[in-house]
Design a protein that fits this description.
The chain is built from 21 helices and ten strands. By secondary structure, it is of the alpha+beta class. The protein starts with 6 loop residues before the first strand and ends in a 26-residue tail after the last helix. The structure holds coenzyme A (COA).
Length: about 500
Amino acid sequence: MSKEVLTVAPTDTVTSACALMLERGVGSTVVLHDDRPVGILTERDLVRITADGADLATAMVSQWMTADPDSVASNAPVNDAFVSLRKHGYRHFPVVDGGRLVGIVSLRDLLKLAPILQIEDPGLPESRRGLEGVMVAETAVGDVRGTEGFYHYRQYNATELAEKRSMEDVWHLLYEGHLPDRAEREAFTAEIASLRQIPPAVKELLPAIANAGETFVPLDALRSAYSTLATSVGFRSWMDIDRATLRENAMRTSAVMPTLIMALYRLSQGKDPIDPHPDLSYAANYLYMLTGEVPDPGHARAIEQYLISTTDHGFNSSTFTARVITSTGADLGSAVVGAIGALSGPLHGGAPSRALDMLDAIGTPDQADAWIRQHVLAGEKIMGFGHRIYKTDDPRSVMLRGVAERLGGPMVDFAKQVEKTVVAVLAELKPGRQLYANVEFYAGVVMANVGLPRTLFTPTFTSSRVIGWTSHVLEQAADNRLIRPSAHYDGPPPPVPVPVPDTD
Ligand SMILES: CC(C)(COP(=O)(O)OP(=O)(O)OC[C@H]1O[C@@H](n2cnc3c(N)ncnc32)[C@H](O)[C@@H]1OP(=O)(O)O)[C@@H](O)C(=O)NCCC(=O)NCCS
């Protein structure tokens, strides 16, 4: 160990601690109170301080240090200290004797000693493919319990919310942390209505965006149009605006998304966009903007239940994307554009229209078994089945099956027969994988039955999930730490000398 430890007091300023670290050329300093280590301030903490925009001249070490650091006893075997540092990913350990600081031991020193003392290197923790099972943050927005087939928004069962409450209520719950009372609901609904309109400067550009490609790809068009809107209304880094402005960015984004989706779709069909209906609920207005007709209340409620059930879902890929982008201090618009990109993939949000395409391809119930078998044996995935977290029925699929049954129609019975066959064939051909219908399978059936064209399935999913994304952006910004994981390098061993370029 090194006996010359750089120490500072909890009451020192971060600036003075940084100056000492620079002067001594070290990456951390132990914080001492009465000769006892009460904290450690590392380069990682300095990054956190900078990202939080704290005033370094007045910020005190005690506010930013990692309190009660792990330490090692001076008589502990070197091997134990080494294993512990490697396992925890620490670079330094204070060394204590009877609780008093006597030195510091660094991973660099121990790595040099390892071959001499023949210490066995336990290596770094294994990387988890696809980050499966890795906890990456604390959240109070909601969670998914895969083995129970249960998910919740805040403290409420999400499917129960979809049975009993409106989209506006659930949105309020996610943003404000509680379900609204009557007065809060009225104020919140009025606020949404005031933010549904597309700003004129963006509206003018929509025909060009809707007709930019050879074929209309709705989510690509939405990503472009929303990005333009975020630029036009001047969203800025959340580090440069106050909390109320960030919340306004979030409200505006979630309120305008359905209007953008429907305007782009109609333009791609050569039709004029329809302005939002001031008196209709969120869900009824969504269907209204497609046709200009006030929808059947049963259809409006069905799509509302779909929207509520897909508003949030733990740390799914697009939500995680939004949080990663937010963690860098980027503006809310960038986080949402990135999340739309993540959602567009067929392994995430791009499956519902593919599930219906599959029903078309199967054609009749008697052909289901052979069709599914052939595709699974060819190594293909059956769209609308399987889930990273759920190893039992996806509660959203169970709820949406009920909504589909309520709507009725021949497609519903056919879908139920195909579901049974897929589950049975997958259990036989992929034993032990526990593959069941996920949200996407009945989502397609419900959306088709209320009159939404297939190209609008994934954008419709986006219109509800954006409320989840922005709730997470607000939460990430309120207690931020840069998300920056590591990876195991498994390429050719470096450093290889860089070859001199060939010359003629
Ligand atoms: C959702 C999904 C991406 C989860 O993926 P994951 O947790 O990474 O699971 P994996 O892809 O590793 O699958 C594990 C095993 O089950 C199989 N499997 C998973 N979903 C399957 C499906 N829908 N059809 C056929 N086999 C499937 C895989 O082939 C794999 O088998 P193997 O062990 O023989 O290699 C995956 O189930 C899938 O691609 N489903 C279809 C797309 C879909 O419906 N997406 C919407 C999700 S809400």
